[in-house]
Write a structure and sequence with these properties.
The complex is a heterodimer of chains A (367) and B (516). With 367 residues, chain A is an all-alpha fold. Helices cover 73% and strands 0% of the residues of chain A. The two termini of chain A are 23 Å apart. Helices cover 32% and strands 25% of the residues of chain B. Chain B is built from 18 helices and 22 strands. Chain B is globular, with a radius of gyration of 24 Å. Classes of the chains: A mainly alpha (367), B alpha/beta (516). The interface between A and B is large, with 34 and 46 residues. The complex binds adenosine-5'-triphosphate and magnesium ion. The site of magnesium ion has 4 residues of chain B, from helix 1.
Chain lengths: 367, 516
């Protein structure tokens, strides 16, 4: 049929762009009206801030890299209509086990850095995958809401991670609960000294590629998409839908574990979390903006990271509360989700195409 | 000339996917008339009525009610403006009573309290007034289809509508129920109601209606008083060519049994026995048709054979293997293809692409995989071939299926199900709501596969033309049992078939002969 699909895609992209622009305009307007920042300064802080110095770009990357992972993971969970938000707790919990291997065993002491990074990722990923199974089991086997279970578990995991750290490898010389300093061969090294831009970016890129391959080219990924799009149909095709739902949630958990890994061992010198990080929750928003497709995660994660860093900047420079970012996210999500926004215009174009074609057919018949 | 109640003028409807379902349609209803709206499957009748009932926005055109332009934005609005609709598939809550369903949303009584007594009174009063007898206290799920229809009518009437839309009300009724409905509709007409009657059955239109509007491909191809029309004229206006499609086929040469059903029973979860001690078989190389009024167990039979629902007891062998306890997947692997009646739920994932839908059953097949990955090259070749062979009108293979027309969606399903070398094809209403071209294609394919590939076909359809045209052997199902078997389908008439379908007559075991 007439290129309707193309019109739809164009409008989808357009809506997201409008969403981003509006979110920024509103944010800037609020900034200059409630603080004494001038318009120029606000615009500079917001839109160009991250590109003005290495340090600030690093800050952006520090947010960006974990989002690449948590966003990709949520694509799988969200693609099969599950709202398993356990990623949030996984980010806190999974690095604890990596720390235990690091400081509690001699395994990694003399290994080359790349091998150690892979070990860290493996431990965090496995932990994440296993943890994600709990809400998945509650949902698929017991029929309990995976959303409620995962949200409750997130708080539990926060305190459990603190407890595990305390009884295992915590650094007793610190006044605050923390792990010892990550040894130089057991972390993601900084590409630019004293910034948050680390070699984890390479793993991030690999992660997105891996997620995209699983999502679009693997049989399991294809099954997950079918189950998500119409479970009854998938079952009629002989697909074991429960299995696919488990796999999707495990993949989501593994990626959340990796997000925790690159954050803890890239951004920080020690394990320092004492609260939930929001990386898991933001992952859902990244996936929503990316329309559940890992291939778009690099873009949507970037938008999210921009908003988050802008909010931090404003917080320090203009004294705006950090929750400001949440508002901008809300505006953005609203536009992405509001399928009828500009729907009238879209329909007009589609209707116009149909009418033109009908007219052409008539002419053809007359000739 | 009676007063005009309603007029739709110059109505054009384009769906969001760009499909034009109505083009410049003008249609009117007067007080005290029953106006027939007729047209083939997919002609756009339901679409036109959905706009009138506020279920779909109008693209171009105007609606006048009582001479005043009306903008109908939703069904509540339509009812407030005096238009009520009885749907093709009605929307009721099975676990509520008749009364509760009727007054749902307009409960009488102080504040939030539901005054059951008053509501029951109201319903029985209305039921008397309109001569639509229903038991106000019965549960909807215990009601017959005919009774449920009355509930729908009352639901509209009690809210004071003046125009009633009935979308194919007789498709689900037995002749007796139909007769009764006609008496009631005539009474309503005489009270001054305007009734819009949609049907495929021209005799019904001749009997009941005073005026007719004919739609074809979304356009009005004719209208007039019933006196000036006859079934032949009407069907010409509807189709613009001979109604009956002839398929030339050689006599079937059935060989070994492919499907064997023995003493099958099925009871649904509210305890209705829908299939009773059913035994029959199909052999390779033949099309077995099952005719019957909808709801006599045919649908459940196809779902049991394909593994979608679980039998209560009995035996089913497919290619010699008992399928009891098998998953849908295992049954498919025995060589079973399935086209379900409800294609949007069971046949496709609307948001996914033509490619994803066409390959959904092939993901684990050796030639379509590269280890854990899909063999994209192979898959794309397969899909492109399918698009070509089955003449699927789509822009490109990654186009979402929901953007295709109904006929093309069905072709996607057919392309998938008919391409994996199944030797038992189970189809349920394969051409319902589908354009003539696709209908013809599907019927021819069913015949072709039996002749050329030695496939066995089980065809369930309530379209008698289709059943008589395609089947080599024919069973009639009534209340979960086989009521008749015809081995020479060319000698069967509609009338004969009708009698068995309604349970007026039943063949003895000797008359039926060997069902395997
Ligand atoms: N929501 C929709 N989006 C796109 N196309 C649609 C939609 N609903 C219906 N159509 C298409 O519009 C056409 C007309 O459909 P409609 O249901 O009005 O036909 P009908 O005359 O009522 O047929 P039937 O006799 O089968 O009930 C069909 O080709 C159908 O595929
Ligand atoms: Mg219809």
């Amino acid at each position: 049929m007439r290129k309707v699909a193309r019109v739809e895609t164009a409008f989808e992209v357009f809506r997201i762009v409008v969403g981003i622009i509006l979110a920024y305009i509103i944010a800037i307007l609020i900034t200059i009206s409630v603080t004494d920042t001038s318009l120029q300064v606000a615009i500079r802080n917001f839109m160009f801030g991250p590109f003005t110095s290495k340090r600030r770009f690093g800050q952006l990357m520090g947010k960006y890299i974990p989002y690449l992972f948590s966003g990709c993971g949520m694509c799988f969970i969200y693609a099969c209509n599950r709202f398993n938000l356990i990623g949030e707790g996984i980010v806190n919990m999974s690095p604890i086990f990596a720390c235990m291997v690091m400081f509690g065993t001699p395994l990694m002491t003399n290994l080359p850095i790349v091998v150690n990074q892979i070990i860290m990722l493996a431990v965090c990923g496995i932990t994440g995958g296993l943890l994600a199974l709990v809400p998945a089991f509650a949902r698929e086997k017991l029929g309990a809401s995976e959303m409620v279970v995962s949200i409750v578990m997130n708080n539990l995991l926060l305190y459990l991670s603190q407890y595990f750290l305390k009884v295992s490898v915590a650094d007793r010389t610190m006044s605050q609960l923390a792990s010892p300093i990550h040894p130089a061969n057991m972390r993601f090294t900084r590409i630019w000294p004293n910034t948050n831009f680390t070699t984890a970016i390479f793993y991030g890129i690999l992660g997105v590629i891996l997620a995209s391959i699983i999502f679009f080219y693997s049989r399991e990924g294809q099954k997950i998409r079918l189950v998500g799009a119409n479970r009854t149909f998938a079952e009629c095709c002989g697909i074991n839908s429960t299995r696919s739902l488990y796999i999707a949630q495990i993949i989501g958990g593994v990626f959340a574990g990796w997000a925790g890994c690159v954050d803890t061992f890239g951004l920080y010198d020690r394990y320092l979390y004492i609260a939930l990080t929001n990386i898991g929750m933001d992952g859902l928003i990244v996936a929503v903006i990316a329309k559940k497709q890992p291939i778009f995660v690099p873009l949507s994660a970037f938008v999210m990271a921009m908003i988050r860093t802008a909010a931090v900047t404003l917080n320090t420079s203009a004294d705006l509360p950090i929750e400001f970012a949440t508002m901008m996210q809300a505006i953005l999500v609203l536009f992405v989700a509001a399928e009828n926004f500009m729907g009238g215009w879209k329909n007009k174009i589609i209707f116009g195409m149909t009418e033109k074609q009908k007219a052409a057919e008539k002419e053809g018949a007359a000739a | 000339m009676a007063k005009q109640l309603l007029k739709m003028e110059g109505i054009t409807k384009i769906y969001d996917n760009g499909f034009m379902a109505n083009e410049d349609v003008t249609f009117e209803v007067a007080e005290g008339e029953i106006h027939a709206l007729i047209g083939e499957n997919g002609a756009g009748k339901t679409t036109l009525m959905k706009m009138l009932f506020g279920l779909e926005p109008v693209t171009h055109g105007k609606i006048y009610i009582d001479g005043e332009e009306a903008h109908i934005s939703n069904p509540l609005d339509a009812i407030a403006k005096g238009v009520g609709m009885v749907h093709q598939h009605f929307m009721q809550v099975p676990n509520l009573t008749v009364t509760e369903n009727i007054v749902l949303g307009m409960e009488p009584g102080a504040g939030q309290l539901f005054d059951t007594k008053k509501a029951v009174e109201m319903v029985s009063e209305a039921s008397k007034k309109f001569n639509l007898d229903v038991d106000p206290n019965a549960l909807i799920r215990d009601c017959s289809v005919g009774q449920r229809q009355k509930v729908e009518l009352l639901k509209s009437l009690i809210r004071g509508v003046k125009v009633l839309i009935l979308d194919e009300p007789t498709a689900v009724l037995t002749p007796q129920e139909t007769k009764q409905l006609f008496v009631q509709l005539k009474a309503l007409r005489d009270m001054g109601y305007g009734i819009i009657f949609i049907s495929h059955k021209l005799e019904e239109v001749m009997e009941l209606c005073s005026r007719v509007t004919v739609l074809r491909h979304g356009k009005v191809t004719g209208r007039g008083n019933i006196e000036d029309l006859d079934p032949v004229k009407m069907s010409n206006l509807m189709v613009g060519r001979d109604v009956i499609m002839k398929i030339d086929k050689e006599p079937a040469q059935p060989t070994e049994p492919v499907l064997q059903v023995r003493n099958l029973n099925y009871m649904d979860d509210i305890g209705r026995r829908l299939i009773k001690d059913l035994s029959f078989g199909i052999r390779a190389g033949e099309v077995l048709g099952i005719a019957g009024v909808e709801g006599n167990g045919q649908g459940e039979l196809t779902e049991i054979i394909t593994g979608l629902i679980t039998r209560t007891d009995g035996e089913i062998y497919i290619n010699g293997t008992e399928t009891n306890g098998m998953t849908i997947r295992q049954i498919r692997d025995l060589g079973v293809a399935h086209i379900s009646e409800d294609r949007m739920t069971y046949g496709i994932a609307a948001d996914l692409s033509v490619r994803d839908n066409m390959t959904a059953i092939y993901l684990d097949r050796a030639d379509f995989k590269h280890g854990p990955l899909m063999n994209i090259k192979k898959i794309n070749e397969f899909v492109d071939q399918g698009i070509k062979d089955f003449e699927i009108a789509c822009d490109f293979r990654n186009e979402p299926v929901r953007l295709l027309s109904g006929g093309n969606i069905q072709k996607v399903i057919v392309a998938r199900e008919f391409s994996f070398g199944a030797n038992l094809i189970v189809v349920n209403q394969p051409t319902r709501g589908i354009d003539v071209g696709t209908t013809d294609l599907i019927r021819r394919l069913l015949v072709k596969y039996t002749r050329e590939n030695n496939v066995a076909v089980l065809l369930v359809s309530s379209d008698l033309n289709e059943i008589l045209e395609v089947s080599d052997r024919l069973l009639v199902m009534h209340e979960g049992r086989v009521a008749a078997q015809f081995t020479d389908v060319s000698k069967v008439t509609d009338m004969q078939l009708g009698e068995y379908m309604l349970g007026v007559r039943t063949m003895t075991a000797e008359e039926m002969g060997d069902l395997q």
